[in-house]
Design a protein that fits this description.
It is a single chain. By secondary structure, the protein is an all-alpha fold. The protein has helices at 2-27, 41-56, 64-68, 87-94, 107-116. The protein is built from 5 helices and no strands. It is globular, with a radius of gyration of 15 Å. It starts with a helix and ends in a 6-residue tail after the last helix.
Length: 122
Amino acid sequence: MRWLKRQFIDASLAQLLYDQASLVKWFGREVPGIALGHTLPFFAEIADTVLARLVAAGVTIIPLEKAVADPAYDEVGSTASSMFLVLQQKLADAAGTRIPVLSPDIKGLHRRIVEMAGDRRD
């Protein structure tokens, strides 16, 4: 469990920073990213650490209302997708230009976790 928590924290940080970099690349400017931490017991155990690491990495936490006030979020409301994608991935997919969902920094970890789960993806 300690290994899983450590890996989840490191992977969360890598994924959020990757998502923000691809958001900036897609829009050509800084756009407030929106991150969601599910209210699950596991996340509750590591939330403080994840948030502290994000702040240490230079992330500024702002209210959701301020983030969605950015005009970039007006573009996604009418874009339908059958996949669970972040804003820029959804827009890129609709435009026929895919942005990889998974940060390259955590692909190996993702493969290992899938293998540990017996290759179940549900």
